[in-house]
């Protein structure tokens, strides 16, 4: 996969010499051996014996798991968001309750919850399959993330690829870094939203929000 295929949407670290991105190693490449030895080191660091029976295969297993959990680093939104045309529909399309399984980039523990993704198709009726909206959520969720960036990346890539009249993305998640450790507040939900184009109009936005809230 070439560096040029990816947009520099991961913040300033990307593309620094020696790091993935333009001018660095292949952006998104997964180095399984390096991941394995890092997990082995981590086990030693926490006071475990990586050579005891139960842990022998753990570094390789964790490396494979990380490859899967961060598979979105090797995917582009345009790989999943295929488009088609349907002139017949120019009203809002909203897919609710898309499961979000992501990883907090601060602590590398999960944050989980739901995404609600809606758009108003372009005047020429450019649309996408409903499942593709869920696939798009996964492309960005399967990376080291913060919830705010996850939300805006989904909204911005939809705007770019579907060229819709408007987009709304609302995400509600529970962060394990606030549950398992640190402040330890199970049940606290973080809500983020990104609204673009005509969905910024108060009435349209209110309609979308009432559809999202309706159970
Ligand atoms: N804005 C934002 N913050 C997040 C997200 N995930 C985790 N955090 C926060 O990132 C912050 C990191 O804060 P630090 O003070 O550097 O780290 P820390 O000492 O481990 O913080 P505590 O979690 O408060 O113990 C914490 O407040 C987390 O709750 C996210 O998706 N968005
Ligand atoms: Zn965290």
TrEMBL record:
It holds the Pfam family GTP_cyclohydroI. Pathway: Cofactor biosynthesis; 7,8-dihydroneopterin triphosphate biosynthesis; 7,8-dihydroneopterin triphosphate from GTP: step 1/1. It catalyses: GTP + H2O = 7,8-dihydroneopterin 3'-triphosphate + formate + H(+). Residues 36-212 form the GTP cyclohydrolase I domain. Its EC number is 3.5.4.16. Residues 1-31 are annotated as: Disordered. The keyword Ribonucleoprotein does not apply. PROSITE patterns: GTP_CYCLOHYDROL_1_1, GTP_CYCLOHYDROL_1_2. It is an enzyme of class 3 (hydrolase). Residues 1-16 have a biased composition (Basic and acidic residues). InterPro entries: GTP-CH-I_C/QueF, GTP-CH-I_N, GTP_CycHdrlase_I, GTP_CycHdrlase_I_CS, GTP_CycHdrlase_I_dom. Keywords: GTP-binding, Hydrolase, Metal-binding, Nucleotide-binding, One-carbon metabolism, Zinc. Zn(2+) binds at residues 104, 107, 177. HAMAP family: FolE (MF_00223). Homopolymer. This is GTP cyclohydrolase 1. It comes from Streptomyces synnematoformans. The lineage of its organism: Bacteria, Bacillati, Actinomycetota, Actinomycetes, Kitasatosporales.
